[in-house]
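Lab notebook, design round three. We kept the backbone fixed and only want residue identities now. Task for the bench partner: fill in a sequence for the structure below.
Input C-alpha cells:
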C-alpha cells in the first residue's frame, strides 16, 4: 500500500484480461497440457495421485485443491488468447497436492534406510544415464552406427534398471524396491524439473531455442547493439552516452528503452541533409545514408513459430524455427578513427 499507483495498474489489467477472451493466440491449445507434462512431470504425477487418493478416501483438503487445480487449468485452456503462463494459478494447488503425496510416498522406516538409499542411488544413476544417452541419440549429425549403439545402450540401461529392482525385491523386500525406485525417480525428475525451471527463466539459452513459458519474441542482439552504439561514441571522442541517435521507421518501445540514456529522435524516415551521428533503420538500403554512413545489421526481434511446433525436434534441445526482424545501425563516416586526419587521432 506504499505505492498507490500500483492499485490503478491492477485495476487497469482487468479490461486487458477481458479483451483476451475475444482475441486469439498463435499458440495451439494442446501445448498447455503438454507444457505441464514436459516442465512439471514430477509435480503432475504426484498431484494426480494425490487428487485420486483424496477423492477415494474422502480427504476434503485434497478434494478442494484438486477442484482449484482443475478450474484453473480449464480457465487457462478455454481462454482464446491462452498462453502457457496462464497455468501459473494451476501450479499452486498442483504442487500443494504433490507435496502431500511426496511426504507420504517417501516415508521410509529407519531399519530400511540404507537399503533404500542404495536402490535409490542405482535408480537415479541409471535414469540420468538413460536421459544423457537419449540426448546424445538426438544430437544432429550422429552417424548411423553411433545411433544404433546409443539405442542399444538405452535399452540395456532400462533392462538393467528393471533387473536390479527385481533382485532388490527378491533379496530384501518389495517395499525396499518400491521405495528405492520412488526415491530414485523423484530425484532424477526433480533434477530434470530444476533444469527446465532454469530454461524457462531464461538462464539456459541455446541457439534457436524457445521455451513454452516464454513464448513471446526475444531480443537476441540488444546487448550487442547497445555496446556498438557506446563504442562508436567513445571512438568519436565523446562520452559513451553523449552522441544522439535517430530511429527512423522502426516502431519499437523496447528499442527506445534500450537507448534511454542518450538523446533519441523518432522519425518516419532518415531524411536528407540532416546528417545525425547515428541512425537506426529497418533492414533495407537507404539512398540518403549509403554514401556518407557505414551500416551494421543486427537481429533485433526473434519470434518462435509455435504453429510449426514438433515435439521430437523440440524435446532434446528445445530447438524451434524463428521469424526474425533485422535492423541496421548507421554511423556517419567521420566518426570512425580511420576517417579522421592523422593529426587529430
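Proposed sequence:
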Amino acid at each position: 500500500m506504499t505505492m498507490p499507483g500500483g492499485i490503478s495498474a491492477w485495476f487497469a489489467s482487468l479490461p486487458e484480461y477481458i479483451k483476451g477472451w475475444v482475441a486469439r493466440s498463435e499458440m495451439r491449445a494442446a501445448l498447455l497440457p503438454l507444457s505441464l507434462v514436459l516442465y512439471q512431470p514430477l509435480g503432475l504425477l504426484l498431484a494426480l495421485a494425490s487428487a485420486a487418493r483424496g477423492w477415494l478416501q474422502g480427504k476434503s483438503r485434497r478434494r478442494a485443491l484438486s477442484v482449484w487445480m482443475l478450474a484453473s487449468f480449464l480457465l487457462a485452456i478455454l481462454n482464446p488468447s491462452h498462453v502457457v503462463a496462464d497455468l501459473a494459478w494451476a501450479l499452486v494447488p498442483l504442487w500443494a497436492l504433490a507435496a502431500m503425496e511426496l511426504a507420504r510416498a517417501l516415508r521410509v522406516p529407519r531399519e530400511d534406510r540404507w537399503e533404500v538409499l542404495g536402490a535409490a542411488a542405482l535408480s537415479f544413476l541409471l535414469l540420468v544415464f538413460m536421459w544423457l544417452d537419449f540426448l546424445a541419440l538426438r544430437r544432429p549429425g550422429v552417424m548411423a552406427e553411433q545411433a544404433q549403439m546409443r539405442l542399444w545402450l538405452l535399452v540395456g540401461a532400462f533392462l538393467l534398471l528393471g533387473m536390479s529392482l527385481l533382485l532388490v525385491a527378491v533379496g530384501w523386500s518389495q517395499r525396499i524396491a518400491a521405495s528405492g525406485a520412488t526415491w530414485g525417480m523423484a530425484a532424477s525428475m526433480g533434477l530434470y524439473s530444476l533444469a527446465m525451471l532454469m530454461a524457462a527463466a531464461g538462464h539456459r539459452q541455446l541457439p534457436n531455442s524457445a521455451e513454452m513459458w516464454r513464448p513471446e519474441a526475444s531480443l537476441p542482439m540488444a546487448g550487442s547493439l547497445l555496446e556498438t552504439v557506446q563504442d562508436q561514441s567513445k571512438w568519436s571522442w565523446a562520452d559513451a552516452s553523449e552522441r544522439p541517435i535517430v530511429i527512423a521507421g522502426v516502431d519499437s518501445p523496447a528499442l527506445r528503452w534500450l537507448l534511454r540514456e542518450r538523446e533519441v529522435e523518432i522519425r518516419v524516415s532518415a531524411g536528407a541533409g540532416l546528417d545525425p551521428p547515428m541512425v537506426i533503420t529497418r533492414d533495407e538500403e537507404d539512398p540518403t545514408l549509403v554514401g556518407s554512413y557505414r551500416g551494421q545489421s543486427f537481429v533485433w526481434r526473434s519470434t518462435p513459430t509455435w504453429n510449426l511446433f514438433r515435439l521430437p525436434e523440440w524435446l532434446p534441445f528445445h530447438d524451434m524455427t524463428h521469424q526474425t526482424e533485422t535492423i541496421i545501425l548507421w554511423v556517419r563516416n567521420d566518426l570512425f578513427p580511420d576517417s579522421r586526419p592523422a593529426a587529430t587521432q
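Keep this in mind before ordering anything: The mean pLDDT is 86.
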